[in-house]
What does this fold into?
Amino acid sequence: MKKILLAATVTAFFAACSDDSSSSAPNDSSVSSIYELGACNSSNRGETKYVQDKDDNYVCIGGEWIAEKDASTPKSSNSGGYADAITSSDSGENPKEEIKEPAKQEVSVYTTAQTTLTINLLKYEQLKAMDEKDKEDGEPRISFTIKSSKDGIDEMDPVKTTTINLGNDVGYWFGSKEVSVLLPKGINIIQVCPKFVDEDAFFDDEEYTSTKCYAINDVGQKIDKAIKQTDDGSAYYTMDWEVTVTY
It folds into this structure.
């Protein structure tokens, strides 16, 4: 009878020890406190770590470290989460913030104020003689008429630049000479129309203009941009210039 009682006592003792150890058995991966758990994200979802100062295992669930004993407990509407939960931000790691670029403001094709149009003459070349005496080089005098409009319908009064004098007996010239005019606001189309005159001190001046005009569209979106143009419509000359519109 004594042997039976002794055996029953030993069996009960080991059963109690087994229950106690299984409730908080340390995980192979352990940390000192919940602040050493690190981030909880998709890469370690479901991972379990033992926290020594809590004497409990914590599971990575839904971006939070949850005490294993609370893992099946629903979140409280008052507390907003589990009693023993820690998020990535609590662990000292800053969550990545989505950086949004500011929306680009579309620039109007129309000018919003009065502008200055500057023409910078870059090159002139005479292609053939310009008078009856077959004189080799002429006396080039160059100017421009600027036409502007809104959508090609509301046409503004044409504006003429001053004349660029390249000198006498000039067959080829390369450099920089500027002329400027003011243009009204609200325009989106500009036409640059060159005028070429061969000046003669003894006879009437002869005009050899190509009669071509060169357009710039969507002017409001081309502010401060140098736009190169070439007049090659005449049999007597060719020339290059740049147009810049500024506020």
